[in-house]
Amino acid sequence: MHMTPPAAPPPTPTAPASATAIAPAGHPSPLAIFWATWRRDLRIEWRERQALNAMLFYALLVIVIFSFAFEAQAALTVRVGGGLLWVAFLFAGLLALDRAFARETAGDCLTGLAISPASRAAALAGKFSAAFVLMLAIEGVILPLFAVLFNAPPGARWGGILLTAVLGTWALAATGTYFSALGAHARQRTLLLPLLLLPVAIPAVIAMVQATQVYLHGQGGAGFWLQLLAAYDAIFTALGVLLADVVLEVE
Amino acid sequence: MVSVVAAFSVAWIVTTIYVFTLGARQRELERAMAALRSEDAED
Amino acid sequence: MKQTETAGPTGPASTAAPPQAPPWLPWWAGVTAALMLYALYQAWIAAPTEATMGIYQRIFYVHVPAALVGFGVFFINLMASVWYLARRSRAADAMAVASAEVGVALLAINLITGPIWAKPIWGIWWTWDARLTLTLVIWIMYVSYLVLRQFTPHSELQPRLAAAYAMFIFVAVPVDYMAIRWWRTQHPQPVLFGGPHAGLAPAMLYALCVGFAAYIALAATLLRLRYRQEQLRHKIELQRRARALAE
């Protein structure tokens, strides 16, 4: 609410757990907030390993179901493998992204994150990088399974696929973290996140799938698609940092 | 010929549908407003 | 929070004044209808038949104005969203709602007339080139924007989150506009602002301009109607809240 003076919570010992972890005294620098948010999110994920395990298992199930649904063979993998792989990444990623802000609303920790405009951008960046690392970790498990279950062709260039995964996951995590924060207060948050993220993610998904397809095939260049992904990453990361204030503002 | 007629019809149909939804919403809003006014009169 | 919104600087909104349409609105609607009929005449009868595509090219006079006016309306949505975030103006938010809806309607016209034109000329209804894909994605994104508005409560939260989303999704509009200039697409190259080889015969250009005028007038009329509705809806909302607080 803009008309009322901003009621920033004082950094007292009664502040939520996140705030005490971030701000022992005074105003911490944005970088400190970034690292604190990043460490805290990853530590929580590590402590609540059952969620992480569930996400991994879910991604594994997607891959296994696909391999039955499509009668996985090397010839098919060369044609549509990129699409299947990214659908599995996307579904697992949606779970991780939804969790990113679900725990903030549960403990009402969003107020603790929103100390000042600079700290909000830093907190959002921290949450983004935690989601990014988490998604990459899940993908690191899915990728070898995919290679085995889908009989990846021997000529596939895995370095290129890894690079695509990093750029593509960055794109999903950047827009996804922002929309996760955006939908945190909405009714039916879990349903809203895919409705917001998927349309905006389509251009990135096209680029990831096309690049992965090129590298699975083992010939041709994917430079155009990687450039597109890099441009997408740059634009939406910048937008997210600039507009962090808008979604994390406290009412 | 059929295509061209179809294309122009689509343009008019979409416009008409939108105008009708606007009309329906307007009636709904005016009913709500009238309900509030009658409550005012009761007080 | 609710209290500050109901008891603004002008005090609680009153139901005393019934909403009334301004006297010029019927005139303006009449002018819009006349322009649309004149555009129809221009597109069907006055404009010459094109040499290669024949009669099918006449779809051009509705396909292109619907798209470009639709993009213009989305630009209004962006401006209204920025304005809302800067000033927290409810009027700006009402304009954002109106422009998203009208833009979705206009882009729907463009997206449906496109395949009807493509089938006899290309032999296919649809192809996933940059222009077609992005236009469909933009339409889906603005539908998502409207869904987001339905999923968030009618408080100060809704306009703020919608404005944040609006800024993310508008990125695709200029990229789509440039798509046929940057990349080789199945979709034809631009005839307007398209470089030295672009251009239209004068009679065709005139028919196109009339088409643009008709769609701009139509968009303005619809925007105005929807904008007033949104303001009325907000007023009713405030009334209900004030009542709930009083009880």
Q: Secondary-structure map with pairings?
A:
The complex is a heterotrimer of chains A (about 250), B (about 45) and C (about 250).
Chain A: H1 17-22, H2 30-47, H3 49-69, H4 74-106, H5 110-113, H6 117-149, H7 158-183, H8 189-217, H9 223-242, H10 244-248
Chain B: H1 2-42
Chain C: H1 2-6, H2 24-46, H3 60-87, H4 90-122, H5 130-151, H6 157-170, H7 172-182, H8 202-246
Structure description:
The complex is a heterotrimer of chains A (251), B (43) and C (247). With 251 residues, chain A is mostly helical. Chain A has helices at residues 17-22, 30-47, 49-69, 74-106, 110-113, 117-149, 158-183, 189-217, 223-242, 244-248. Chain A has one domain. Chain A is globular and about 55 Å long. Chain C has one domain (26-241): Four Helix Bundle (Hemerythrin (Met), subunit A), CATH 1.20.120. Chain C is an all-alpha fold and 247 residues long. Mean pLDDT of chain C is 85; it is low at 1-13. The two termini of chain C are 17 Å apart. Chain C has helices at residues 2-6, 24-46, 60-87, 90-122, 130-151, 157-170, 172-182, 202-246. Chain C is globular, with a radius of gyration of 21 Å. The chains are: A mainly alpha (251), B mainly alpha (43), C mainly alpha (247). Chains in contact: A-C, B-C. Chain B binds chain C through residues 1, 3-4, 6-8, 10-11, 14-15, 18-19, 22, 25-26, 29-30, 32-33, 36-37, 39-40, and chain C through 15, 18-19, 40, 43-44, 55-56, 58-59, 62-63, 66, 101-102, 105, 108-109, 112-113, 116-117, 119-120, 218, 222, 225-226, 229, 232-233, 236, 239-240, 243.
